[in-house]
């Protein structure tokens, strides 16, 4: 049993899923893994089920249909909060764009005082490998846009490689998190900061996937662009008081 759970949402990740699972379980620190699979037609969940016989700390939740990144993580957060042994709860992609070796660094940041540790591509310059320049610029300026609108001092606002202390997810009303795409990542950071949690950025090198297909779309980008304004406006009429609870 571990105090650390890594949540990995999947949709058609058969090329990557076994390799990422084996890599995580090879690390010096013992993490548990929860796969949230949205009915992948390529058999991703079947691969996970086969590996569960080898790795007892590998968990699987299957959902019907492609329901979105944000709802997958909310499902995983609730699953983790039902099990009191997990103190550190992670978000990570299945495609090796997030280096599993950095999991230990994110956890250490939370052990040493952070409530939310973000694996940041931009806190020390621009650390992205294999992205076309257009994608780098879109991501970088998206974070600038988020800082301008929300006034939060986060260099990588759309980052999806994170470690939460349990108390952060227990405090945030997860049913009120409304966005499902990359805006979900922004909303979770913004909400954690509004509740007064200590959020730190840990520099990482982000490497774009070499296998499988990216899930980025125009709809996801549009949700993030418009959602930031809506999120900021809504925050003016909301109380962020940890003593009130959920």
Automatic annotation (TrEMBL):
Pfam families in the cross-refs: Glycos_transf_2
InterPro entries, alphabetized: DPM1-like, Glyco_trans_2-like, Nucleotide-diphossugar_trans
Entry keyword set: Glycosyltransferase, Transferase
GO cellular component labels: membrane
CDD domains: DPM1_like (cd06442)
Any one biological process term the GO annotation gives: glycolipid biosynthetic process
PANTHER family: DOLICHOL-PHOSPHATE MANNOSYLTRANSFERASE SUBUNIT 1 (PTHR43398)
Name of the molecule in the record: Dolichol-phosphate mannosyltransferase
Record organism: Pedobacter nyackensis
High-level lineage: Bacteria, Pseudomonadati, Bacteroidota, Sphingobacteriia, Sphingobacteriales
